Structures are given as structure tokens and as C-alpha cells.
Protein 1
Amino acid sequence: MNELIDTVLKEKRAVLIAIILGSIGGITSVALFSLSGFIISKAALLPPLYIILFLAACLKLFGFLKSLSRYGERLISHEATLTILNDLRMTFYDQLEKITPRVFTKYRSGDLLSRVVGDVETLQNFFLRVFYPPIVTAIVFICTMFFTWFFSAWIAAIILLSLLVTTVVLPALILMHQRKKTVKILLERSALSTEMTEFLFGFRDLVISDQLSNKTNDLLHLAKRYAQQQQKRSTEIIRHQAYNTLLAMLTVVAVLTIGAYFVTTQQLDGLYLAMLVLLTLTVFELAIPMALVPSYMEESKQAMERLQSVMIDHDEKIDAVGTTIKKQPFSVSFHTVNFRYDEAHQMTLKNINFVIPQGTRATIVGASGSGKSTIFQLLLDYYSPSSGVVCVAGQPLESVCSEDLWSKTTVMLQQNHFFYGTVRDNLVLAKDDASDAELLSVLQEMELDFELDEIIYEKGENLSGGEKQRLALARVWLKNTPVWLLDEPFSALDPQTERRIYERMMQKTMGKTVVMISHRLMALQRMDQVLVMDNGELVEVGHYDDLMQKKGYLYDLKQLENNRLPS
């Protein structure tokens, strides 16, 4: 909550103006109704006309000030709220950027969407309904108490006692009752958002597998549960407001009863009784919304904690973002690295040791599930090792700024995203100053017969698997940094196309550091190193010819591949 308060206080000027205008609006509202009661009582005594005209003029003045101040208060407070929400979003996005994409390994996309959109939107209630309304209410009540004390200390004491119960005791009881329910609502909203996102992503597969109806029913069940939680919360809010309203009305009755008694005992001038009753009625209109403060405060607190939890889980990485890769040979090395995924029972990687010097090309091979992609994910800083150290350019990867790492590397993953737009739009992501001639040249090298203005659908839905992979390779060609990290770059290509593009890649990467994962054992003799993985262990490291002469694990894999190839 301290971070949230600090964010609000950045808008000191707007906060101060909103409090001042809100206080003026509340005081003039009380003055307006109090003066109305006084005029009614005064008129009954048939005073001179100029007195009635003067009081009526004051009444109009208070009415004008009330409307003007309330309008200004709403304008300033809502503008400040939008600015505060914008600051919160930018702060969250800035921090999220530093830990992307590793954050996606822990949080599902729908859950992140719920936090970024829903939880941030929830925080708008903090300033509008939690932060400054109690301050305004306190100022108005203090002024009211001071004014009422001149007419009757007993009535002022009754209003004060009722105020303490309405704004302190009752909200405290509500807060104790509300805490667990607020958490449950946010979790239900997160679950619904997560499942809805997954439903949209997997809609086509659900239709094909004839599971659309079952998944829809599950989604409707979640929506119903969330709606029920929201309904319960709304009912409780109405109930709490009703309690405050009841207490306010009882206070009005008490003021009227005691005031009437004081009039009969001549302790109070009857001229002021109506004024005090209307004053009490009006001032408690400000106190009634105080019943909502605990709900909104707890909701804001939980929403802020959910946002911060994403950052807290990755604090170490955020603290290290200022470290850049030093100017020295960009070698890649693993030193006694062990790794286990969260909630997994077995180690995925066991005691991995290797060094890939700068300017050399290495291929990581092995059976499916042997740990090849996990090495790649550790190298890209998606995960941190359970033990051991991953180094780039002689520096521990955990101390290196991820953005600096990615700026110096050309990366191709198994799954590559394509944005809705033109071929040009999707290529310039790798090199924003590339000319059309350069883009067309790369497309030609990738054997893609595309026009630069040709439209690509979201996620490349109008492309074949091979076209997607070659378009992703075109990005690699364009970025062309000294370090290339490639995960199964040719898996979707036919053998002939693969050989031609592989040959071009070997020419393109002369003198560069290349780490490539491949399940195919083609042209390994062209690589400087072959790293052979089996069941999470690095079982062989060396040049292809040397490993084949040993007739070890790589030799067996090659024989199996040859036997599977058509004769």
C-alpha cells in the first residue's frame, strides 16, 4: 500500500485541489440546508422583507458554490485518477518488460491479463473512494462540530459520537468481515480471465476435438461463480450502507428529540431547531458512503499485492538490469548446471558442463525430452538454474541485463509469433531501417515468393509451417548479430530446401558464435562442436568425426536415423 500511496502523492497538486473543492462542496451543502431550515423558522416570525431577501440571496450563493465546487472536485479528482492509473500501468509495464519472457513461465497469459487490466482498474477506487473522501468528511465534520457547539454542546456531542460509530467503528467491523471475501473475488476474476483466454486460443482445437460444449459449460460455471461472488459483494455493500443510513436517521431523530426538549426548557432557541435537524441530516449524507471505504480499501490492497507479487518473484533479476555485457569474447558456458522445473519431481538437467568459445558453431542433439530445449531456455534467461552457473562473455547470466543479452544475439525459437500486418511489417521487427531491396533479397534467399505489402494474418494463420519457419529465418538473416541461437530452425522444411538454406546459413555465420538445437543429424561434420544430450545429461561433447569414431551414443542415434530414412 505504501507504493500506492506514493503514486497518489505524486499528484500532490491535484490531490490538494480535490480536497479543497470537496471540502467547500461539503461545507456549502451543509450551509445550504441549514440556512433553509433557519429561513423556514425565521419566516414564521414575519421578519422584515429585506431579511428574507438577504437570506434568500445567501441561499442562492451557497447553492452556486456547492454546484461549482462539486463539479470542479469531480473534474480534478477523475483527471488525477486517470493520471495515477497511467503511472501505475507504466510502472508495472516497465518492470514487466525487464522480466519478460521469463514471467510467462510462471504466470498464464490470462492471469497476467487479469492483473494488468482488472487489478489496475480496481485501483481507481483507491483515490476516488478511499484516499481523499475520508479527509473531506473529517474537514466538513470538524467545521460542523465547531458551528453546532455554539448552539448546543449536547447536540454536538451526539453528532460526534454518531460520527465515530459511522466512520470508525462500523467500517472497522466491516473490514474484518470483508478481507477474505475480497481475495476470493479477485481470484475468481483471475480464474475466469485465464480460462477465457485459453478458450479463445484453443477454440479451433476444441471444435475439431468435439470438446467445445464441455469447455463452454466449464467456462459458464466459472462465470456463474464469479457473478455470484459479485452479487454477494453488492448485497453486502448495500447492507453496510443501510446500516450507516439507519444510524444517520437515528442520529437525526435523537437531535430532533433532544433539541425539542431543550427548546421546552429554554436551553435552545426554537428558531434554530429546524436548522440543526437539517444540518445533521445533510452532514450524515457524507458519512453514509464511508461504509464503502473498507471494501474498496481491501480490494485496492489485494489488487496492488497481486501486481507486486509478479515483481517480487523476480526481484533479483530486476535489481540486475543495470549490468551490461562487457566487451570481451562472447563465449557461452555452463558450469555444473542442474535444473528442475517448478513442481517437477526429477531434475531436467543434471551436472551440465560445456564451453562454446566465440566464433565457433555448436549443435545440441539428442532424443526428444533429453533436455536440449531446456538448455536453450536457460541460455535465453527464461529460467534460472537450480544450481550451477550459466555464463555469457565470461559473466554470470543472472547478473546480465536481459535486454543487453538479446540485443547482441539473434534468436529463433521453435514457435515464432507473426503479427497481423504486411510482410514488411513482420520483417522490420528484426531491422527497422532495412530497405525494401534488402527485404526482397532476404525473401529470395529464403525462397519465399512474397510481396512486401502482402498481408499476414495474426499468428501467421494464412502461412504454411514451412513458410512460417522461413519467414522467421528471414528475420534472423536481417538481424545478423555476432551470436546466433537457433532452436530447430529447419524442422518444418523438406530435405532439399533444408540443405540449400543450411548451406547459406553456414556461409552467413562464418566467424560467428552459433548454438543450434536440432533433432536431425544432418551435416554435423560442418559444426565445430556437437553436444549430445540423453535423459538430462550431457553424454558426449566433441567434433562429429571424433564422436563417430568412438561409436558411442551419437553413433547409435545416427544409425537409427539412417534406418528410418527411405531407401
Note: The CA atoms of residues 390 and 396 lie 6 Å apart.
Protein 2
Amino acid sequence: MFPVLPSPSPSTVPAIRPHRVCELRAAGVRFAAHRVLDGIDLVVGPADRLAIIGDNGAGKSTLLELLAGTLAPTAGEARLHLPGGVAHALQNPEFPPGATVSAAIDDLLGDLRALERELARAYDQLASALPAEQAQRLAAVSDLQDRFETRAGYDVDHRIDVALDQLGVGTLDRTRPVAALSGGERARLALAVALSSRAELLLLDEPTNDLDEHALAWVEERIAAHRGALVVVTHDRDFLDRFATAVVHVSDGGIRRYGDGYPGFLRARETERRRLAERHEAWKAEVARTEELLATNAFRLDAIPRKLELDGFGHGAFRARSRDHGAVGRIRMAKERLSRLREDPAPPPPEPLRFVLPDGPAPDADSSGEDDALVTLHDVVFQEPGRRLTVTAWTVAPGDRWLVTGPNGAGKTTLLDLLAGELSAASGSIDRRPGLRVARLRQDVGAAARGSAVEVFARRAAVPPSDARAALLAHGLFREDEIERPARALSVGQRRRLDLAVALASTFDVLLLDEPTNHLDPELVEQLERALDDHPAAVVTVSHDRRWLRRARQHGAAAVRVTEGAAVVAS
């Protein structure tokens, strides 16, 4: 390590802190024929806390890369002023082939390691400097050392060790090939280094994914202590609520920035929805008024006879022709007005998410007798290589709300498979009401079926093809130009929305939701929660989403805890 020199004088250290650390002006990114971002204007200040939200595939991670300077815009410009460095924790980090964990850490520390090497060279030059050069060399060393100490560079490796331990990967062998780590381990490695770097700008991509409560609390504590700028991509609504001072929404290749944090974003979006509805109603009223004007003048024109006997030297014919001419003019203007209105319609806002309700009277949700059970599990044992699950007794009745919790790999999804009838028990009994209808939103978005998005939707939701287009567009989950795309060409986020659209259009008695907040932007999750509030079906949810769990418990949801191969139903 290097000796610690006295603090440099103010004349040798830049005293002016920039008012912005990143600035994008009309920036665009295009990969071949695919436009990801277009015409982006964004300024990040030195104390900003920005959250980036939007659908998967919308360009959120690409936006982070622009801000990090690791991706150059194909249009416009990106201006970065980051003397204090940048730390970028990707969700799926990549490293040079053959890199060890230790080399990956050096790669992630990038600018700090470069500063360390530069400081070492400066010391070497100071040691060999001629007397006339020593003052200049000393000033250079002092400046570099000040920058290095500002980042607490001397202790960074110790901080990384602590961070890895807090994130549950403290036992990683530094000589191990980083390619041998799981995706989750690589993501936590990148997060640990970023949070330890003391960089001026912190860029985080889904930092709360797959963290247990202890690790999550530690990460939020470190972020709260960060004194520079923060830009984070996240779907975690609790995280948004706590840290975001502004929200940047990415959609259709563009962005829109909303102030007042996450609550301000929700209020602004609701205001936008109301304004869209008002414009649509005004447009409909104008179309109706113009059509009425057209019909009235057409009736008047038809009432004027084409031939008249001349009287009074032809004055009657002149008056008739005058009325005829006025009606024709009004009809022409009304037709032109109607054509303009229809060429430039004011579309209605997307409908809030709403599930199809079953036909007939709703079952008595307050009754808990055996006759009202939808599914009953009794002394169930499921076993196959690598998986085992036991359930002593569990009854799911109409209107029930159940939360299934437990560590990863404990068997939560297996429990949903048993409820859905997709797996059979080795022993015990699973009784289902005859004709039971089950809908499911799965955790993993699998390979899409053949056909366009609207064709797949029509088949899976049993919607007549003539109604499928309107039904798929109704909730704003897709744009018109997206529903004709091959389903296999849809992004993960789009396929997730297609799964959600199928569930919305299906009639069910039991709805199984496996991590329903995955791949959906927070605004849709808020709508999904409200859509389920008064639905008469039973809803069983597996989720790690803190806000979803808290809200469900406040609305009376009961718990099933799955741990060590056993599902324990709360009494």
C-alpha cells in the first residue's frame, strides 16, 4: 500500500462539484433493425435517486449502460462527468473467459483499480524526480491520493469480504473460475463489489432479486448510506417507496420522468388516465354532434324538390336553390370534419385489469364446511427423485386467500402443481370439486406456442377468434402492432403479459399465482391486486414480494409455510 500524505491544499484539488454527473441528449440505441431507445433526454444530478421501471425488454438495462458509459449511443450524445467513478451491478454480469473470482472483482472495480495503479506510478515518478520536478510530482500524487481516499480505496477489499458474507456468498474461493458460479452468485458478486466501491454514481439492476430478509436489509442499509447519485432498475415497490425521489418510466423506446417518488408516479399516471378518458369522451361527443349535423342537413336537402314551377318571375326557385346550396355546403363541411375526427381519434385509456366473473351466484365465501370445499388435501405425500413434499391437512374453499411462503427449493411450486392436478400424490388423498376450473400464472415463462400472440391468446383463453383482438387489447397489455407478432418472438415481459391476459379472460374457481409480480411493472401489479380484491374465487399465491405479502395479510390471507419438504397450514 501507499503512504498517506498530508491533505493537499485547496489550490490543488478541484473545488467545484458538477451539477450533473450524467446527461443524455436525444440519445438513441439501435441494434441492427431493432430500435431500443430513441430521442432520450435525461439528466442525473449528484444527489438524485432515480428508479427506472417498465416492462422487460423495454430498454431499462440499456439505459443503465448508457449512463455507465459502457454503451455508446447510436444517435444523440451522452455526457458523463464522473471523477468519483461509477459502479454498475448488472443483473446478469459477464466476465472475460477464464476469469477467476478474484479477477472478476478486479474487473468490476475497474476505475478504482486503475486509480490505484495510477497512484503507484505517480509514487515511482516522485521517487525518481529531479529537484525541479518534485513540487509538480508531489501535487500529482496528492491529487491522486485524495481521490483514492475519497473512495476509501485502502479498505475496499475488506468491504467486499464483508459484503459477500452479508449476501450469503462469503465462502467463495477467489481462485475459482467465475463461470462456475450460478447466475444468482454472479449477480450477488457484482452487487457486493458495487456497494463496496464508494463510487460517485451507483447503477443497480434489480438489486433485491432473490435475497433473503437478512441480505435485503443489509443491501438497503448500504444504499441508504450512499452519498452519491443512485439510478436503480427495480420492480420492488417497497424499495421504490423508500428510495426513489423520481421515477423514470421506459416505454415504446422513450422515457418519461415523474417527480415525488413512487406515490407521485402513481398519482400522475392516474391523472393521465383521467385526461385520456376526458379527451376520448369529448372526441366521441364531437363525432356524434357532427354525425347528427350531417344527418339533419341531408334530411333537409332531401326535402327540397328537384323541380319547382316558377312563380313570381322565378323567385321561388331561386329561394329553393339557395336553401339547397346552403345544405350542400354544410354537408360537405360536416363530412370533412367527420373524416378528420376519424383519422385522428382520441383513444380511450386502457381498462383497469379485471377478471371475468363466473356465471351464476357466487359461492358462500364465509362457509367453511366440507361440502363447500374446492380442493381438500389429506395426509398427502408426494415423492420423486430430488423432490419430496408432505401435507397433513388443507382445505381450499371459495373466496379463500392463501399465501404460500418458504425458502427457495422447499417445494412451493410443487404444492401448486398438486393443487392444479398436474402432479399426483404417492399416498393420501386430493379431492377436487367436480368440474373444478383452475387458472394459473406460472413463475417461469416457458417457450411460446405457434401462431401470433392473438391466436395463442384465443386458443388458451377459449375466446372466439372474432372477439380475441378486442379482448387482448382491452387492458393495454399489448399495442396493436404487437398482437400480430409470432408469440415465439415476444420478449419475456410480453409473454408474461400474454399469460396474464389469458388468466384475465378465463373463468376459474381457483387461481394459482406463482411469483405474480415477476416481469410485470409495478403499475400493473397494483392493478392486479385490486382486480383480485372482490373476486369470489379462491386465490393461492406464492410470492417474495414484500408489499404483496403485507397487503394480502391485511386483507385476511392465511398462510401455508413450506420448509424442509413439508407444508404447514396456519391454524
Note: Residues 268-343 form one domain.
